[in-house]
Amino acid sequence: MRKVLNVGVININTVHPVYSSLEKTLGIIEKNKYSGLDILMGPEWGLMNNNVANERPHSPAEFKDILAKIKDASRYSNTLIIPGTAVIHTKENKMYNILPVFYKGQVIFSTIKKADGGTSFFDINHNYELIGKDYQIRNTFYWKGMKIGIEICADSDTLHEQGENNLNIQILSSSGVRNTTLAIKENGYLICADGNRSAGRKVYVIRKSTDQSDVNVFTYMDLLKSNDYTAISGAPFEFLPVEKKHQNMNVYRIEMELNDDIP
Fold first, then answer.
1. With 0-12 CB in 10 A as exposed, 13-18 as middle and 19+ as buried, what is 136?
2. CA distance to 68, 76, 79, per residue, from 106 (Å)
3. Pairwise CA distance, residues 82 & 165, whole Å
4. What's the pTM?
5. I need a surface site. Which of 63, 69, 230, 250 has the fewest CB within 10 A?
6. pLDDT at 219 over 90
C-alpha cells in the first residue's frame, strides 16, 4: 500500500530566543490542527519558556498543563504531533528531558534523552538529579503501519547503535546536532528539526536512496552547511524540496510503501 504524507517541520529558535518557544510551538499546533498535516514535529526545547533569564525545569503541574493544552488541540485533529521536548522535574527532585507524542487527544508515546547535551543548563542552582544516562529507554513506536524512531539531539546515532536499520521514519529533534547515522530502510525518511541558530540547514527531510547500512549524515556535513535545497549531493540520500513554506514551519511531502500487516 502506497502512503503519501504531508509533514510539517517547525522552524523556531530554542536557544535564548526573543519569544517563548513554548508559546510559539503551542500557537503553531493550534493553528495547524485542521490543516491536513499528517505529522507535525518540532525541535528540542520547543516546549520551554526559554526567553527568560535563569529558566528552570517545568514543575509536574506546569508540565501537566502543557500536556492538557496539546491533548485538547489534537483531540479532533488527524495530525500526529511530535512537538519537541520539555525539561521537567519531579517531586523527588529528579530532572529529565522528555519528548511526548500526541494523537487524537492522547499521549500515545514518549521518550526521554539519555545524554546530558545541555539539559543540565536548566538546573542553574543544582537542585535536581539529571536522569536518563543509565536508563534503558524505548525510542521506537508504530503508527498507521509505520515504524518511527526518535532521537533527541546528543542522542543522535542511538537508533543505529541499537541495531535499528529498518525504520520508516527517523526523527531528530535537536538543539545543535543536525547529523546522525541513518536507521531507516531504503526509501525511508529522516526528519530533522534543530532549534539552534547556527548557519546551515536546521530543518530538513532526507530520503535514503540505498539499502546500505552505516550511512552517516556526518560524512556529508558540507551539504548541511548550505541552504540550497536543490543541490545534487551524490550522497546515498536526497534532500526533499520544501512543498510549502509558512512562518515558522516548512511542509514536505513524503511517500512510502507500507505492509498492511504492520500495526
1. exposed
2. 9, 11, 12
3. 21
4. 0.95
5. 230
6. no
